[in-house]
Design brief:
By secondary structure, the chain is of the alpha+beta class. The chain has helices spanning 6-14, 81-91, 94-99, 105-117, 121-134, 142-150, 162-168, 176-179; strands at 41-46, 49-53, 61-64, 74-78. 37% of the residues lie in helices and 10% in strands. Strand 2 (49-53) and strand 3 form a beta hairpin. The longest helix is centred in the middle third of the chain and has 14 residues, at 121-134.
Length: 197
């Protein structure tokens, strides 16, 4: 786990709030989607979107979205878990934060306005508890912050499963086979077909 913010994560998980109202439903990685990185440690889920830490990147928070509108399925959202929560406080849920990867500022502003106008009482209550109990304030410019984190991000240390490369029809990077045992998705026995004529 991202040890620097392990305490803050545990405090967050212990709060008596409805995390699913913020798009951070609890779940596990027992049946991961093809794009969930190897070693990902879940913070929460919004449908199939995983919010997580990756051991190669310390305290950074990532989204892994198998249905992404962006060129990549995995992308950073925040430099730390504290910043991630501050983004959620600004945006009312994780959804606008995750959408920044493919939006321009005008699209984001429109989406954020709609999200904030439609916040449920459970979401408002959860946001109030997070701000008060964890002593956090909303991020001033969520769009600018996330775009800065994503700009020139070095994704070369993200580790993917065999399934990721197979689904996308990609070749694993150089050195990949030194770290992982490459296994086919399906192993079939040989079948001999004979025709009688």
């Amino acid at each position: 786990m991202a040890s620097k913010h392990m305490g803050l994560l545990q405090e967050f998980l212990a709060l008596p709030i409805h995390r699913e109202a913020l798009g951070l439903e609890q779940g596990d990685l027992s049946e991961p989607y093809f794009c969930y990185p190897v070693g990902a440690e879940a913070i929460g889920f919004e449908g199939c979107i995983l919010y997580c830490f990756l051991p190669e990147y310390g305290d950074m928070v990532f989204a892994s979205n198998p249905e992404s509108c962006a060129e990549e399925c995995v992308y950073p959202l925040a430099r730390s878990f504290a910043d991630f929560l501050r983004l959620v406080l600004s945006c009312g849920s994780v959804n606008p934060v995750e959408q920044i990867v493919w939006m321009d500022r005008a699209q984001f502003d429109e989406h954020l306005t709609q999200t904030l106008a439609e916040l449920s009482d459970e979401a408002r209550s959860a946001l109030d508890v997070i701000a008060r109990e964890l002593r956090l304030c909303p991020m001033e410019d969520p769009y600018g912050y996330v775009k800065a984190v994503q700009q020139d991000f070095d994704r070369s240390r993200i580790r993917y499963s065999d399934e990721y490369y197979d689904v996308l029809g990609l070749e694993p990077p150089d050195g990949w086979s030194d770290c992982y045992e490459r296994k086919p998705l399906v192993q079939m026995e040989s079948v001999e077909i004979q025709f009688q004529g």
